[in-house]
Amino acid sequence: MSTRVLVLGAGFGGLEVTAGLSERFGSNIEITLIERNEHFVFGFSKLDFMFGKRTKSAIKHGYGTLEKPGVRVVRASIEVIDPVAKRVTTDVGTFEADFLVVALGADLDPSATPGLVESGYEYYSYAGAVAAQTALENFTGGRIVIGVTGTPFKCPPAPSETALMLHDYLESRGIRKESEISLVMPLPTPVPPLHEGSQALLEAFATRGIRWFPKHSIERLDPETREVVCADGQVFPFDLFLGVPTHVVPEVVANSGMASDGWIPVDPLGLETNYPQVYAIGDVTSVGTPKAGIFAEGQGRVVVERITAHLNGTPTGVEYNGNGICYVGFDAQRVARFDVTFITGQRPYGIFDAPTAAISQEKDDYAASRLVRWLGAES
Ligand SMILES: Cc1cc2nc3c(=O)[nH]c(=O)nc-3n(C[C@H](O)[C@H](O)[C@H](O)COP(=O)(O)OP(=O)(O)OC[C@H]3O[C@@H](n4cnc5c(N)ncnc54)[C@H](O)[C@@H]3O)c2cc1C
Q1: Atom 26, ligand 1: which residue's CA is nearest?
Q2: pLDDT tens digit string along 62-118?
Q3: 9 lines ligand 1 (CB under 6 A)
Q4: Which residue from 60, 94, 104, 335 has its CB within 8 A of the most atoms of ligand 1, so it is best to mutate?
């Protein structure tokens, strides 16, 4: 019987593990990829959709094109994970494996911030981005607050990019002068590990008249007065609130007993959990990198190496290097590159490359290449 690998979640991490193992072993391995959604959506394309750059159908990539040797895609909702037995129960049946890879991402909990569901819009989920897009279309001017309601949150530069894109969007609609954009965040700088990149963003905010409020912890939204209320008592009145909601580990993971202090602990170099032959990658872990797809993908590559070495009975020298590139659009033509490395016990470090049209093309190429690699979609 060939080795059975269960990959839970078809996001950045799960798709990379699936593609990598299929490439290595072809039909000599049984990979079962379990995913509840019908489509894959890049996080960053939710912003493109919200601000009218791409249509709903253009940002949704169906899993139907994923046909790879050794891979079976199961559309199902995972209900129970038993990491000891390496068994998973779903709404369509039970699956067992020799290796388990948990890549279920982070769930969002807007209700953790009182008043957010009643009077604001979270825009991090697909459904939230769709609702926020309609709210933006109906917006005719006023005060918009972009607020980060807690840490950790996916793609730390994304709220800054949201503010810049919002500026351009309001300009294009001719209502920027009648509008105020405020960005309220708990972080001290837009991208703390990269001083130069943070400075570039702060300059971009200043040039565009975007109000920036660092080190602010949002406590609640008041639906009556339509104000954001911070822990220090400061309030921000709003006509439209676009929020980054609280992130939590998926309930099925919490119930599995794998999480500790909110997320799944893993060996930062090998991504193995406390359970033998059970790996966890990406946003669902507390591995020490930011919650971003590029890191989930890099971790997925290491898991492929680890499982390969295990099956071949060879030692592996491959360790996770904590490196990832985040692309941040400064305007419609130019994108900046934040190349950052996070190593346990060290200060994160990296290189910032100022926004250019060439980097914008690089970002497009990155996305297109992943769609081909992961889903077999045409570029
Ligand atoms: C607005 C925005 C912009 C972003 N920009 C960037 C960027 O520029 N660069 C970058 O690297 N990252 C970016 N991100 C972050 C990125 O999208 C996530 O960090 C990344 O998707 C995490 O990958 P993952 O594999 O850990 O989890 P996910 O990609 O979230 O995948 C998890 C999968 O598990 C599935 N799942 C969960 N629970 C169940 C269940 N019970 N049963 C079945 N399936 C389940 C989900 O449906 C999902 O498909 C952005 C995010 C947002 C919201």
Answers
A1: 282
A2: 999 999 999 999 999 999 999 999 999 999 999 999 999 999 999 999 999 999 999
A3: yes
A4: 104
Q: What is the pLDDT of residue 315?
A: 87
User: How far is it, in rounded angstroms, from Cα 64 to Cα 62?
Assistant: 5
Count other C-beta atoms under 10 Å from residue 146's C-beta: 23
What residue ranges define each of the domains in the chain, with the CATH number in brackets? 3-106+249-321 (3.50.50.60), 109-247 (3.50.50.60)
Which atom of ligand 1 is closest in space to residue 42's alpha carbon? 17
Q: Which residue type, as a one-letter code, is found at position 95?
A: F
Minimal CA–CA distance to 353: which of 326, 331, 323, 333? 326
The H or E element containing residue 200 is: helix 195-208
Determine the pLDDT at residue 378: 67
> pLDDT tens-digit profile of 157-208?
999 999 999 999 999 999 999 999 999 999 999 999 999 999 999 999 999 9
Q: Is 154 in the pocket of ligand 1 (CB under 6 A)?
A: yes
1 band by pLDDT with thresholds 50, 70 and 90: confident
Return the number of other C-beta atoms located less than 10 Å from residue 134's C-beta.
Answer: 11
pLDDT at 322: 97
Ligand 1: distance of its center to the CA of 73 in Å? 18
Per the CB < 8 A criterion, the answer to whether 104 and 200 are in contact is no
Q: Which of 110, 112, 113, 81 is nearest to 259 (CA)?
A: 81
Whole-model pTM?
A: 0.97
> For residue 144, which of 184, 190, 175, 179 has the smallest C-alpha distance?
179
Beta carbon of 100 within 6 Å of any ligand 1 atom: no
Q: What is the overall mean pLDDT for the chain?
A: 97
- Regarding the beta carbon of 283 and ligand 1, being less than 6 Å apart is answered yes
